[in-house]
From TrEMBL:
<dbReference type="GO" id="GO:0006096">
    <property type="term" value="P:glycolytic process"/>
</dbReference>
<dbReference type="InterPro" id="IPR029033">
    <property type="entry name" value="His_PPase_superfam"/>
</dbReference>
<comment type="pathway">
    <text>Carbohydrate degradation; glycolysis; pyruvate from D-glyceraldehyde 3-phosphate: step 3/5.</text>
</comment>
<keyword id="KW-0312">Gluconeogenesis</keyword>
<comment type="similarity">
    <text>Belongs to the phosphoglycerate mutase family. BPG-dependent PGAM subfamily.</text>
</comment>
<dbReference type="GO" id="GO:0006094">
    <property type="term" value="P:gluconeogenesis"/>
</dbReference>
<dbReference type="InterPro" id="IPR001345">
    <property type="entry name" value="PG/BPGM_mutase_AS"/>
</dbReference>
<feature type="binding site">
    <location>
        <begin position="22"/>
        <end position="23"/>
    </location>
    <ligand>
        <name>substrate</name>
    </ligand>
</feature>
<feature type="binding site">
    <location>
        <position position="99"/>
    </location>
    <ligand>
        <name>substrate</name>
    </ligand>
</feature>
<feature type="binding site">
    <location>
        <begin position="115"/>
        <end position="116"/>
    </location>
    <ligand>
        <name>substrate</name>
    </ligand>
</feature>
<dbReference type="Pfam" id="PF00300">
    <property type="entry name" value="His_Phos_1"/>
</dbReference>
<feature type="binding site">
    <location>
        <begin position="88"/>
        <end position="91"/>
    </location>
    <ligand>
        <name>substrate</name>
    </ligand>
</feature>
<feature type="active site" description="Tele-phosphohistidine intermediate">
    <location>
        <position position="10"/>
    </location>
</feature>
<comment type="subunit">
    <text>Homodimer.</text>
</comment>
<feature type="site" description="Transition state stabilizer">
    <location>
        <position position="158"/>
    </location>
</feature>
<dbReference type="InterPro" id="IPR013078">
    <property type="entry name" value="His_Pase_superF_clade-1"/>
</dbReference>
<dbReference type="GO" id="GO:0004619">
    <property type="term" value="F:phosphoglycerate mutase activity"/>
</dbReference>
Amino acid sequence: MSRTLVLVRHGQSDWNLKNLFTGWRDPDLTDKGVEEAGAAGERLKAAGLHFDIAFTSNLSRAQRTLQLLLETQGQSGLETIRNEALNERDYGELSGLNKDDAREKWGEDQVHIWRRSYDVPPPGGESLKDTGARVWPYYIHTIQPKVLAGGTVIVAAHGNSLRALVMALEGLSPEEIVAAEIATGVPIVYRLNADSTVASKDVLEA
């Protein structure tokens, strides 16, 4: 019984590079992001991981990261399920804005609250708590059963949708999760117990 769950944040996107709030907007990967996706696939291959099914968001940067990773790993035909429940946090009116410009418009403190608080959403957007409210049910009803049935499952998504998942998996508090960072293109490998708790965690860094 494998009961293995792998989480990977998409590689660097064009808007990450330009320091823009991305949210549900759909920029592609940079050359560095493409390299990060391939490198993640190499590390997963070296770890001997072979997937039964993949999940990703409706956004192309996560989908392309998954595609490149699976090609590198030799599993390009893997069954893949896409769902907007795994989309990045919606940044609302901040989407598409340069983060420095946003600080000039609303002030350093306010932008920091929107970015790093747990339950304060930006105008027209989602907080991390709001993001979790769509991620958690999808995980519990759709992804977790595949893992607990003994499968090896990969989820390619985004910084905030994955932080919401990590919060649930590791039982982190709101204060702990807002301080957590998830690096682009670095797989996190969880082995689960039969009761869905985490037996082990490995971060496959370069």
